[in-house]
Task: inverse folding
């Protein structure tokens, strides 16, 4: 009799387990609605763990102007341990990756194609945050940003030494398939900026600049007509703009 009852209940138990699993997956990729400039804005929330890489499910970043999805795909995966945040990414649909000429760290490499992170500790929108960039030549940019966007609009940058900051980074080019892949390992201590207010919550945005036309001049610079300015969480700007902390999403270390 007990066996018969178990057999009858088995389909319901399986369905229940599936629903729990589905809920667990959903909880990894949720969003949070905040009011910004009198508008309700939905900001992405990425929850990562120590066991395995968590992948951002949506491969299509958003335009910084208007917020519509871009056509190019960007794969981003993250995990962490007690000491480091690890990031793997693939910038796909990138046919001009060999037309990037910056090779020196902390250069004006943002004038061409880059993959970027802006991050600050805690769940509040703050005016001080880290800017971390890497380009297809494995050049690294590390800086502390002081962005008085709520007051006098002044914007200051303090470079960090890329050789002593403890950041591990690498890049792999696949020109045949128009892809460049990268890896960043960032010390958790470095990310406790502007101050350590939370062990597991950060404000984060991820960006990508993509060239849309060929460039004969190695000193070319991106602009609104020749490049796409893409964001994980759109800054909803009137002109291409990444420095908008109110629109940073949330990173939670589970």
Result:
């Amino acid at each position: 009799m007990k066996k018969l009852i178990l057999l009858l209940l088995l389909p319901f138990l399986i369905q229940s387990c599936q629903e729990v699993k589905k809920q667990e997956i959903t909880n990894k990729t949720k969003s949070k609605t905040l009011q910004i400039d009198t508008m309700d804005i939905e900001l992405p929330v990425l929850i990562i763990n120590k066991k395995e890489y968590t992948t951002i499910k949506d491969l299509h970043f958003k335009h910084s102007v208007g917020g519509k999805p871009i056509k190019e795909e960007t794969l981003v995966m993250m995990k962490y341990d007690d000491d480091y945040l690890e990031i793997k990414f693939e910038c796909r649909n990138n046919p001009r990756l060999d037309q990037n000429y910056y090779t020196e760290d902390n250069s004006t490499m943002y004038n061409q194609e880059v993959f970027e992170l802006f991050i600050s500790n805690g769940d509040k929108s703050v005016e001080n945050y880290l800017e971390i960039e890497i380009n297809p030549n494995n050049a690294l940019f590390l800086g502390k940003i002081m962005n008085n966007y709520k007051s006098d609009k002044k914007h200051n940058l303090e470079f960090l030494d890329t050789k002593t900051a403890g950041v591990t980074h690498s890049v792999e080019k696949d020109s045949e398939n128009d892809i460049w892949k990268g890896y960043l390992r960032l010390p958790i201590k470095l990310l406790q900026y502007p101050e350590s207010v939370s062990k597991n919550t950060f404000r984060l945005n991820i960006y990508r600049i993509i060239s849309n036309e060929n460039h004969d001049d190695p000193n070319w610079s991106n602009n609104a007509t020749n490049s796409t300015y893409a964001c994980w969480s759109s800054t909803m700007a009137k002109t291409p703009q990444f420095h908008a902390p109110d629109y940073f999403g949330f990173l939670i270390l589970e």
User: Anything to note?
Assistant: The chain has a mean pLDDT of 89. Residues 29-253 form a domain with the Immunoglobulin-like fold (CATH 2.60.40.1190). The longest strand covers residues 201-211. DSSP finds one helix and 15 strands in the chain.
